Amino acid sequence: MRRLAGFYILAAGVALLPVFFPDNYFITVVGVTAGIHVILAVSLNLLMGYAGQISLGHAAFFGIGAYTSAILSARYGWNPWLAMLTGLLLTGVIAYFIARPILRLKGHYLAMATLGFGIIINIVLVQNGQLTGGPDGLGDIPSLTIFGWEVDSDLHWYGVIGVAMLAVIWLSLNIIDSRSGRALRALHGSEVAAEMMGINTTTTKTGVFVLAALIASFAGSLFSHQQGFVSPGSFSFFFSIELVTMVVLGGMASTYGAVFGAIVLTFLPELLVVFEDYEVMIFGAILMLTMIFLPQGIFVGLRNLAYKLRKKNATPDSIAGKEQNRGTA
Amino acid sequence: MWDQILQFLITGVTVGATYALVALGFAIIYNASDVVNFAQGEFVMIGAMTAIALSAGDGGLPLPLALIGAVLITIAVGILLQRFAIAPARGASVVTTIIITIGASIFLRGVALLVWGKDIFAMPHFSGEIPLHIGNATLLPQNLWVMGGAALLVMGVHYFFNHTIIGKAILACSCNRTAAHLVGINVGLMMLVAYGLSAFLGAMAGILVAPITFTSYDAGVMLGLKGFSAAILGGMGNPMGAVAGGLALGLIESLAAGLISSGYKDAIGFIILLLVLFIRPSGMFGKVSAERV
Fold first, then answer.
1. If you placed Cys at B23, which of A86, A328, B210, B242 could pair as Cys (CB 3.0 to 4.6 Å)?
2. ipTM above 0.90, yes or no
3. Domain carrying residue A91
4. pLDDT at B229 > cutoff 60
């Protein structure tokens, strides 16, 4: 109960918000987008934050899921759930086959390889017009139906995405505190040391890469049915960068940090609309300043500060140590 | 058929020369400070855009003066980037520095958007637009400017690092900062010089190629990524490898666009990059290095 206390608070918040603001644009419209971003950021955080493998191409898996769902359900009239499952299968296979060669790389090379993969997938989406609709995108994607109940309003979608998001967060929190989660964190510290401890680093890295890809594909399918329209622009290199930013802004290796980062970065552009022309500039400046002055991320930085204030004699190091030990207890 | 291929080769070398300059800038910054500068493409954009802005209109400067002004402004941007974004975050992880430079590139693009809007700008050709003919292939004077300019700059950089005291001092910093400091090298200053030099190369690339390709506030994104690819193809941190990587990438893309499909030319460039990374992760000319534990 205590371990997941944060999760229950979050779940209560997600459930209560629409009760108080049922017609608020920021809750039911932007909130849904935020939910999808949270799912993506949490999945990327598993790979990047915990396993320490940077990916600048995560949007590709999001795109594969979204387009498989869109093409099969809109063009061929498949059941959306079956389409989603096919998307997951396709993503899983692709992720599995590229995982080994890609994850052998490190640092800048890994960044470049994942970036290249993301761009290749995006070009394929743009160029295969007869299937994907090309740069103009693909519309008329049917909505989801859950046991005969059609998800057709903003509020309904809020509910569906909210549940999916909480499920993914719960999954992430539990994985991290499990045996494989400890293997992941060991890997982040030092691959050689992890291997010495008997962890099969190749299997572990491949596993987390495929899992992150599957979650992204799931988010993609939800996105495509919720929007009813997909275009390659939503799955570009820039979106991959935005996802990385969400993870890093909140604080790496913290599921709540990823949640925080995703929510902030979804609402920020909405708020910056006031500054219109300055939006891009301010976005870049915030990104730079956070990384220069709070490289551990806003959420994790603030949390460490809160710990410090509560237990005056506790140093940030001992808090970090506690985090490392969490789950072994 | 052969005339066509000759034409693709001319285009390929021109584009490749631009990539080579961007990649060279990448390699210099990477060597000096271990940072992969994702804002490298923005130097190219700023160089071209300020040159056009300075020379435009009735009160505009004559082209040569405008070019010098543009280069100086870009160098200033490079130095400011190092001083206010990279230097304060010294010792940060790879991911952190990548995000900082990505933030810087978005910021610079935002400023360009604010100043120049979303329009596409053209720059006058340096010496006319009367094409030269080689067989059935044509060659614009500007193509020669790009190739010749790039060749001179590459030779200049080579000379700078091998035969001048400042160049050697920068190399010393990249080998070992502390040791360089101990023998009396002003490490901070050398970092500024390296970023300035890198920005200078970017600006030159932008200015040389802008009459052919046109430019806009977001022109730097793809160029930056291509430059990064080229630098990796050639082996990160090997300046002359980066130049070879740039030329190779330009040629591959141009041939792929002409012979296979123009829509997939970027994809083919990246597929080659992935294959090189999978087979030989240290690049074509990079030294194979073992990881230290």
1. B242
2. no
3. 5-278
4. yes
